[in-house]
Amino acid sequence: MSLKCLFGHQWEGCVCSRCQAKRDEGHDWDGCKCRRCSKERDEGHDWDGCVCKHCGKRHDYIFLNEESDESHKKYRCRRCGHMVVEELVECGPCYGEGEILYFASESGMGGGCGQTCYQCGGSGKIWETHEVLPETENQKLNDKE
Ligand SMILES: [Zn+2]
Ligand SMILES: [Zn+2]
Ligand SMILES: [Zn+2]
Ligand SMILES: [Zn+2]
Ligand SMILES: [Zn+2]
User: Which of 11, 39, 58 marks a domain boundary?
Assistant: First the structure.
């Protein structure tokens, strides 16, 4: 605190007009952000799809336990209802083996030397995230049958 405000700040909303100190009241909200101190709050967002244009916050997703299994994790947006699916897929660089073979000689002879895959860390699988829009969601379900 500066000496100027030793006996109390000169508050203008949330910011002191003398020393620029900030307090958590009297904000001048423009949607989710304060015009004066640029503090963010969790309301008044300006949603563009699932992401706020102002602060980049995403909607809340609920984990859909019943629709998920060991290789699929499904989440639904609380507000727009669209789904995000995390799918366990075969890792590309190691072809699902978890190890990448490096051959000692260029001809490929002489045996390979396995190294733990840099992408999946040896599991052979990685999680891939897809956003599913409401229209295609039904199609996907139908395709399965
Ligand atoms: Zn002050
Ligand atoms: Zn403020
Ligand atoms: Zn926002
Ligand atoms: Zn959403
Ligand atoms: Zn891998």
Answer: 58
